[in-house]
Specification:
globular, mainly alpha, about 425 residues, single chain
Length: about 425
């Protein structure tokens, strides 16, 4: 499948899968008050944090290893990655129990749901492993089919458990957990059927995958601080109701990342293939198009900012109108986050992921400090400003690090590409 056709399929898949929960947002915000929605938001936050630890993101190493022409037993590598996930899941469960024994109110949800967040993260890892292999195989239709199926399943269970059975926050969290578990079972069956799972593992592959993923844990935890710390501060300083309103704004702002994420998913396998073949015409060509993408992202963000108030009124109603104050800052932050992916792929390809740890921990620390300073003074708007500044810093740092590990002619009108760094 061509790059542009693949990008179109991934865009439609992203839009469809994201549209389902987005279309449910008006119903959920009307069925649940801000405080209940705040509890749902804290559960989602725990899932996001758990996903940084469970599996160590080693499915990313599988996407790189797929293009290693010397590897003859890729299925053993995939199975070894699954064992790494199970080991990290056990460690994460012990860590969570220890933290909640000291600070039981920190999670914002009851203990069973906090542990359930770990289960959702584990199931999500399995789903991502299936998706990333389809991604590098350029199987866009299969990728889209499973992604959209999960979204529809999640929506259907949510309608049944929240709107029909009136299960409230517990119904929404249960629907998400059940949908992810079912999607993971489908992913495992698909991997087994395509002979991507072996009956044995390799400790050498487990070690290699862990070496790839371990440096990513500080990076992902830094990213988690960047995107979730504000929610804990708002919950502590302003309460669950304001947390719910803030998370509605976050959900709306996420729409800005859909098109960029789809383009990146089509771009990654093509990029890795070109880097492996070392085509001399590649660097200048892709840099020129990347600058065009930066411009398009900026235009899209500006247009979204102009439509903030009518969008909030249309989607969630007057009860959440306070979200309009923080939404422009969140949209700008998401725009920087979308641009980040366009420059981070070179670091993943080079496997020098410790650079990402440096960038994300620095940006995450910046976000934490600004959030603690600004939320007491400006409320939710302070959290939005902090997020935007930290995302801009992350983008700038990763761009700089990316050019160190794999120099590209970003100022192509002034310089030539020197090739990958030694």
């Amino acid at each position: 499948m061509s790059f542009f056709r693949g990008a179109a399929v991934y865009t439609l898949s992203n839009v469809a899968s994201a549209a389902v929960p987005f279309l449910l947002l008006p119903a959920l915000t009307r069925a649940m008050g801000p405080e209940e929605y705040g509890q749902v938001a804290m559960f989602a936050t725990l899932v996001t944090i758990a996903s940084a630890v469970v599996g160590l993101s080693v499915h990313g190493s599988a996407s790189v290893r797929f293009f290693d022409r010397e590897m003859k037993d890729f299925s053993v590598y995939v199975s070894s990655c699954m064992v790494v996930m199970l080991a990290s899941l056990a460690g994460a469960a012990l860590l969570l129990l220890g933290i909640l024994a000291i600070a039981p109110e920190l999670a914002g949800v009851p203990l069973p749901w906090a542990l359930g967040a770990l289960g959702v993260a584990a199931a999500s890892f399995v789903l991502q492993m299936r998706l990333v292999i389809w991604l590098v195989q350029k199987c866009a239709l299969q990728y889209a089919g499973l992604q959209v199926s999960y979204a529809v399943l999640n929506a259907g269970l949510t309608v049944g458990m929240v709107l029909t059975l009136q299960g409230g926050a517990a119904g929404r969290m249960g629907a998400q957990a059940l949908a992810m578990a079912l999607a993971a079972l489908i992913a495992i069956a698909s991997l087994a059927r395509s002979r991507m799972l072996a009956g044995r593992i390799s400790f050498a592959y487990m070690s290699e995958a862990a070496r790839f993923g371990a440096p990513l844990v500080p990076h992902l935890l830094g990213t988690m601080v960047l995107v979730t710390f504000d929610r804990f501060v708002i919950k502590d300083k302003l309460g669950l109701a304001d947390t719910g309103i803030y998370m509605v704004a976050v959900q709306i702002a996420l729409a800005i990342a859909l098109v960029g994420d789809a383009i990146n998913k089509a771009f990654v396998p093509w990029l890795y293939e070109q880097l492996a073949q070392a085509r001399p015409e590649f660097p200048r060509w892709i840099v020129q198009r990347t600058w065009l993408c930066f411009f398009a992202i900026g235009v899209l963000a500006m247009l979204a900012m102009l439509a903030v108030e009518p969008l909030v009124l249309l989607v969630v109603g007057e009860k959440y109108l306070a979200a309009t104050a923080v939404l422009p800052w969140l949209i700008a932050g998401q725009a920087f986050g979308t641009a980040y992916f366009l420059v981070a792929n070179y670091i993943f390809y080079s496997r020098r992921t410790h650079y990402l740890a440096f960038a994300s921990l620095t940006a995450g620390g910046c976000n934490a400090v600004l959030t603690l300073l600004l939320v007491p003074r400006l409320g939710m708007v302070g959290a939005g400003i902090s997020f935007c500044c930290a995302q801009a810093l992350l983008f700038a740092l990763v761009w700089w690090c990316s050019n160190r590990v794999y120099p590209m002619p970003w100022l192509f009108w002034r310089q030539t590409c020197k090739g990958p760094a030694a």
